[in-house]
Structure formats: C-alpha cells, structure tokens
Specification:
32% of the residues lie in helices and 28% in strands. The chain has 305 residues and is of the alpha/beta class. Helix 6 links the parallel strand 7 and strand 8. The two termini are 37 Å apart. Bound molecules: adenosine-5'-diphosphate. The site of adenosine-5'-diphosphate has 11 residues, from strand 2 and helix 1.
Length: 305
C-alpha cells in the first residue's frame, strides 16, 4: 500500500467545464512533490478533492492508505491543508489562530511546537497582532504553522507562494525542505516554473490533465531539440521576424530574451545577418539550456493540437 498519495483517474466537472480529466499520479511517503500548471489548470480542484472538501465525479484517491471519499473523517486528522486563499481568522491574533487550530484537532500548541518552531520563530515577536494585519509573507508562515500544528502525515499546500515577495518565497521553500526531515509527505502546487526545480518530482498539469511526471532534471533533459536565446533592440519585431525565419520551429518569449527551438538547418550566423539586414540592431543569438518551462510550452502546444 502506498502510504503517500495515490490519485487514480480523477474526473471533476463544474457544469460544462471539465476541471479534471482523468488525473493520475502518485506521491511517495515523505516526498516533496510539486503540481505545476497555469491558472485554471485544475490544481485547486484537485487539492479540494484531496482535502475531502469536494467529491470527484469519478476516480479514486487515497492518502496514507485512506480513501478520500470513504475515510474522509479519519483522513482529515492526518492531513494539513493550506488553501490558495488566506484561510485564517483575520480578527484573531497570531497566537489565537494557532491555539484555535490546535484545539480543532484536540492537541496543545506545546506538544507539537518543535515541528513549527523554525517557522513560528519569525512570528513570535508579535503574538498579539491580528492575522489580518500581517504582511503576505507573515500570513503565509502563520497559515503553514496552523496547517502543521496537529503534526499531519501529509501536507497539501495550494499555491502557497502566489502573491508573496521573492524573499518570502525563497524562505518558504527552505521551510518546506526542512519539513521533509520530519518525514511529512508534501504536495505543493505552483504556477511559478522556477519553483519546480525545488521539488523531488513534479507533475505538470494543464486543462485538467497531467502532461508529464518526473524529476525536474529528467524532465528538462527530455527536450531533444536544440535551443537558442535571442535578443535585439526591438524584441517584438525580433519575435515576429524569427517566427518567419527558415530553420525556426518555434519562438517564444522567455524571461528577458526569446527562446528559439531550432530545426536541423538553423544557422545562428546567417539568421543574425538576415535580421541585421532587416534593420534590427544588437542582435544576439546563442545556445540556451532547456528548462522545465521550455518543456511545458512544448507539451502545452502538443496538447492543443
Ligand atoms: P487552478 O487552481 O489550476 O487555477 P482550478 O481548479 O481553480 O484551477 O480551476 C479549474 C477550472 O475549473 C477553471 O476553468 C475554473 O474556471 C473552473 N472552476 C473552478 N472552480 C469552479 C467553480 N466553483 N464553479 C465553476 N467553475 C469552476
């Protein structure tokens, strides 16, 4: 029996919208697993089903060997869930929120404090501040502390870093890797591709179905095409011109540059000359490493066809 998370052929529709369409993957016990996908991909719907707050239309899911439908009561005591939207009581203080969540599970804050100590440390200076008056990063730390206070075996974190500043995002991921030492199975969703590489394995989701599951390194390595970075003085024109250029299979915006997916007959030198002749300046084209984001773009395009 898998003591982590098993998701088998889960389907869920809201009226005509198919939010989940035969989702399958599993997470090993103690694994830090990421669910990566754009807005509307179905991440929150899957989390709500796992958190026993929503029934699937069909399919099966279990965590710690317990069925999310049949064993929902027992399961609720074994999981910690941090929903996408801030779920704490804004008009309770930091301390009161923590005590409230502990009491819901019949535990004392003291008993499990060791688990949350590294996270809660940063909130300890203002135990009497109302949760509603905390900064985004602090709210996130309090929500994580509350989700952990009953020492769950599985932690479900739905887009915990959305809308949080870069420093708090990075601190949050440090906290997650620390939690792994306690053997907690963690499923975390994000739409930030750069966070994918912080997970042991990830599942890419789009339009309610899973595009790929593997370690971030293996997924990035699975791109066989040759990629190039491209930049010039007029990036929009560069994109338009490259998309019409011989040997360019795909071209898309990638951070501050463009990524070119090259055909076999692509030549960076002749492409640079051609673009210069067309009036573009400061044209640079040089080899790029494939990333998870490149794979995601490729798989999403295949998915549309
Ligand atoms: P994500 O968390 O990846 O942004 P969601 O699970 O929230 O994705 O949404 C998946 C799809 O289901 C979207 O098309 C969304 O508009 C739709 N959806 C989500 N919740 C509801 C709802 N309560 N009623 C109708 N449609 C919904």
């Amino acid at each position: 029996m898998n003591e982590g998370i098993v998701i088998s052929d889960i389907t869920k529709s809201y009226g005509k919208t198919k939010a989940l369409d035969g989702v399958c993957f599993s997470v090993e016990e103690g694994e830090l697993f990421g669910l990566i996908g754009p807005d509307g991909a179905g991440k929150s719907t899957l989390f709500k089903i796992l958190a026993t707050l929503l029934l699937p239309d069909s399919g099966y899911a279990s965590m710690t060997g317990l069925d999310v439908v049949k064993d929902y009561r027992k399961l609720r005591t074994e999981i910690g869930y941090m929903p996408e939207k801030f779920s704490l009581y804004q008009d309770l203080t930091v301390k009161e929120n923590l005590e409230f969540f502990a009491s819901l599970f019949g535990v004392s804050v003291k008993t499990n404090f060791d688990l949350i100590a590294p996270i809660y440390k940063q909130l300890e200076q203002f135990p009497n501040r109302l949760a509603g008056n905390l900064s985004g990063g602090m709210k996130q730390k309090l929500a994580l502390s509350c989700a952990l206070i009953h020492r769950p075996k599985v932690l479900l974190l739905d887009e915990p870093t959305t809308g949080v500043d870069a420093v708090s995002r990075s601190e949050f991921w440090d906290m997650l890797s620390n939690l792994r030492k306690h053997g907690i199975t963690i499923l975390v969703s994000t739409s930030y591709m750069d966070e994918a590489k912080l997970c042991e394995r990830i599942a890419m989701i789009n339009n309610g179905h899973i595009l790929a599951v593997n370690s971030p390194e293996k997924l990035a390595d699975s791109i066989e095409e040759t990629l190039y970075n491209a930049s010039a003085n007029d990036m929009f024109r560069l994109l338009t011109e490259l998309r019409k250029t011989q040997g360019v299979k795909e071209c898309y915006t990638f951070g501050a540059t463009l990524h070119i997916v090259a055909e076999k007959d692509f030549s960076s030198e002749s492409t640079i000359q051609l673009l210069q002749k067309k009036g573009l300046k400061d044209v640079k084209i040089y080899p790029a490493y494939a990333t998870i984001e490149d794979l995601f773009i490729k798989l999403m395009q295949n998915d549309r066809q």
